[in-house]
Amino acid sequence: MSAPHDSHDLCSDHGGENPTIWHLPVPQSLKDEWLSLETRRHFLGRSGKALAWAGLASIVGRGASSARAASHPSDGAALAAQVPHFAPKAKRAIYLFMAGAPSQLETWDYKPGLQSLFNTDLPESVRGGQVLTGMTASQARLPVAPSFYKFAQHGRAGHWVSELYPWTAKIADHLTVIKSLHTEAINHEPAILQLTTGNMFPGKPSLGSWLSYGLGAVNDELPTFVVLTSKMPVTRNVQALSNRLWASGFLSPEYAAVALRSGGDPVLHLSNPPGVNSDLRRAMIDGVNDVNRQLYETVGDPETNARIAQYELAFRMQTSVPELTDFSNEPASTWDLYGPKAKEPGTFAYNCLMARRLAERGVRFTQVFLRSWDNHNLLPENIKTLCEDSDRPTYGLITDLKRRGLLDDTLVIWGGEFGRTVYSQGTLKPNDYGRDHHPRCFSMWMAGAGMKPGLSYGQTDDFSYNIVKDPVHIRDLHATILHQFGLDHERLTYKFQGLDQKLTGVLPAKVITDLLA
Amino acid sequence: MLKFIPLFFVVALLPVPAAPAPTSIDYTHDIRPILAENCFYCHGQDATKRKAKLRLDTREGQLGNKVVVPGQPSESELIARILSTEEDEQMPPADSHRVLTTAQKDTLRQWVAEGAPFTPHWTFSAPTRRNPPSVHTENWVKNPIDRFVLARLETEQLTPSPEASRATLIRRVSLDLTGLPPTPAELADFLADKKPDAYERLVDRLLASPHYGERMALPWLDAARYADSNGFQQDGDTFQWIWRDWVVRALNANQPFDQFSIEQLAGDLLPNPSIDQRIATAFNRNHLLNGEGGAIPEEQRHVTLFDRVDTTATNWLGLTVACAQCHDHKFDPITQRDYYSLLAAFNNVPETGLVGGSSYKVRTAAPVLDLATPEHKAQLAAVEARLAALKSDELLVKLRVDWEAKIATDETFPVPALRATAARPAKERPELENGDLRRYFFKHGLAQVHPELARLLADLARLKVDDYPRVMVMEDSKPRDTFILDRGNYETPLNKVSFATPEFLPPLPADAPRNRLGLARWLMSPAQPLTARVIVNRHWQTFFGLGLVKTSEDFGVQSDAPVHQALLDWLAVEYRDGGWNTKALHRLIVTSATYRQSSRVTPALLERDPENRLYARGARIRLPAMMIRDQALAVSGLLVDRLGGKPVYPYQPADIWDSLAITKERDFTYPQSTGEDLYRRSLYTFWRRTVAPSNMFDASARNTCKVRTAITSTPLHALTTLNDPTYIEAARALAARTLRAAFFRDTRLAYAFRLVLARDPDGAEKKLLRTSLEKQLARFSADPIAAQAFLTVGAIPRDPTLAPAEHAAYTAVCLAILNLDETLTKS
User: Fold this and answer.
1) pTM score > 0.90 for this model?
2) B235 CB near a chain A CB, below 8 Å?
3) How far is CA B549 from the centre of its chain?
4) Is A186 in Cβ contact with B294 (below 8 Å)?
């Protein structure tokens, strides 16, 4: 199961059913109108280069979308997807990425039958000759490790929720739990890449980049795609993260995420240097732009106008970002929801609150990473710490979005990159065991934005080893997420290396309509 | 509603550049793209997907069964089908989601009516020598490039732009050839040089500069996915910079490109390879390397092999072959067998797929070339001898046991948890706690109880691993069988294959070695149609922003149809037959009248040719981030222009590395350089693959082969050049240089402006600069603390003889000059 056999979707032209939307039936009058707008645009900004964030356009006096559409005049296909293909349910998404792969057995996939099988050997018929990782391949036995933690049913829907999630249990009725995710990747890097970019090999655009490319910006003073990495409550079994998880691949670099930092400047180089206040900076930018305007008069290159807009927007970001990161205007009830740790920059709780603030301000896609779920050993202890750290903020986020009316069009996604084995890695005691990587099944949940609340979808066998009902591949998950944004994963394409590339790649992918309300 | 209508309608309606209506149909430009986009999926070269046994990508296929009857559209099944409105007749079928426009249908019909001329895809047959066209305005022509360009402009009834000013020219060509702006002396010399060949001599001087190799290495490093670390979990550092230095040397020496290529692909297989020829092969080892604990060796080794095949194909052939990992390519004539036959050339390296040396800073994977000096080895031997003499193994055990006993009862020991662990008998300690205790002992305890041993062990780690120079290279000492892999899965091999080049291209000579060397020589052979075009096109891209073929990564049937195909072919033949002389090619390009045009543009021309593919004007392109930084260092006088050596660590905000990495196994604190290493060229900045340098925007990620980088303008870039200490310090140094060089305000402002832009400010600009300076001066004079604070940024000490308010105000103005559009742009 470990081979990278679905991972080369350079050739996404498969299926022959993914034209760009070049040929969408659009009334001639609109084409004419566009044409006149476009002709005007040529005088204002040629822009063989991408102009980021729709806001630039309004500054230089054009329609926002014309600048976006103009990003790649040279690549027709690059413009393929500036419209939703159909009415969207989601306007934005918050993805709580549990890097390192949380065990499904202690969280969402309740297997009461395992208790009586403690320390028995995993039947070979269940394992089915699967390749194991380098970490347990040499282990003499594969003894079954039942969950140390108890489960109970919650809410009207009756989701089985682990006792590790007392807060999340309260919002069970909002959640659509999927227990039948699966992947081919058995190691972290390829697996995380597949979740974040649809492909195990580096170089492909991330989900957030595809959304930015497809839908553009809502707020011109903030990026469309933001990444937040969280402080770890425990630092055993940590996963490295890298920029390529939120990079734009072959899409224009403007679609890559901006990583908001919790220490120093939230956005790199946001602060003025010492001794330079906002007035002084304003004067400096005025000086730059005055000379640039003069240059434009003589040289006539619209790129110069784009530069002027770029510097204006940079100045505005210097105000809008501090406003974003200033939590002082949050009502007291916020802290009741997210818990006191939300006041400490960089914690998962802080990042959940930040994610809500970003969602409010129109950021399309916020991906919050929480690491160190890779519990090869000391799993009961470590997972408890991680759940304690993340449970209440998760509850807080969903509840907060709900009370602000944002949950209806904000898609929240929770999950890691694969599952963990039912058998123990290393020592096995009832309260002390580890679990190795397991790609054949894992659990995720989604909430809001047209997902069917309270649904439990998919089923695994008694060992949470194989899927017995309704498998959901990562490609299907991606297709479903795009669908909620009004995007057809077959039609959200970008021509690169002669091929129509897409997030879901080569192999068949489908929207799981059963998950949708 | 309007604001969501995409631009592509415009592209569809207004071909760019707007050419006169075609009088006759050209297969390559007009027909093949339509067929490829809409038909080849089911009627192309992939036999497994082929419907109705029909191929439309070959002449035989088109002419068979009256699919196309030349001259007779009404007899042609193709035309009948595309015009049909019957659901079961219509092509493309509805379920393909592909629709032909009326214009496309008309074009296909016209093509058949004109006799359905067919030409094989132009890049798949070798370019031949053709004479440059004749032109009316002979006196504009400086070399043959200009004939191609001018002939087209004359057809289009356009005229070239006048030559750029001398100042513009020297800045343009200096940046293009060396990545650095001209110095004031160079500028003065050139302006004063009244001989007719002044420009040509300037070019020759720049081509001979050692900085030429540094500049020209940049695109090559992107293509070679060069970085200074492995790029996965633990992200160990490497010594691949030794290869980077080789590249700069080879480019400076103007090594012929065929040799340059052959050595990088297969230098180890040349007879009696030199050290340099073996270092060159590190090109093939610049890929990512997975150090994850759970990594499955064979899986990772195949990831590496795929990367090598893809990189080789993209870099030299301009082909996307990755599709053929799983099945025959849909559009290009590359079969799955071709893919694995190519892969066989890379499959004999004694590598495991994994990387060793966990917990060390540097992690390399065999095979490596040992480059330690005799002195280094002697030092290492001395350390090892001393450790042996101390019986270090036994000594360590004893020291540790004693230390544990001591801290177990030491009330003042700073880590109570460890003290508790130490208090338990060794056998009863949980493994993880024992590990923490052991780590603490080695990190802190040992140095206290036995300083010499601690120092020796640190020396050992340094001399034996972290500082032991070794570069990962190629070696064919482990022959393996190669198989076609079912859907690219190494667990399911199909038929065995041996090394071969793609069947649709000219064959390997009968006497060629059947290995990487054979492949390398074949890539550079004159009959092979792609390499010369692909490479020449990339050189053109370096100077003009876009290649003559815009899709510089793809020369397959889906590639961009060039406006100037004849020029590209002429250059390719010139380059290939002229001995792959890269400096000569660069000289040819930059001495052309085409290159020397002014980049000023009128709205009419802009609308006619927005991408400047007709070359009625000079190129105007924002500089790459690396060159923007180098320029700031150069004009401020901070640049340390020493060539080569270990990577350096210039300014970067804290925590960028450690926030992403695993910090337990090694220290990921950014080891910021001091002194001269803060001011080296950006080429030498340490490139951590997981987290690229924070101020290198729009750069290749250096993960996979990249031959075209985008240029965008986001506010983040502006924030970087306004607030990154690199630029503030450069502005401060530039201001100091200015204040010392001139006395009067206006001459000072002009001096700084001229240092950066190689020209004097005009009247209006002078006025703006003056106004800006006066404003800043007033503010800083009123707030001396702010002035002092502003002057503290950066490591270079402030010149105390300069008045702070004035220095601060000039720094602000210099920072503004460094941020001007003209500064950030090659004009």
Assistant:
1) no
2) yes
3) 18
4) yes
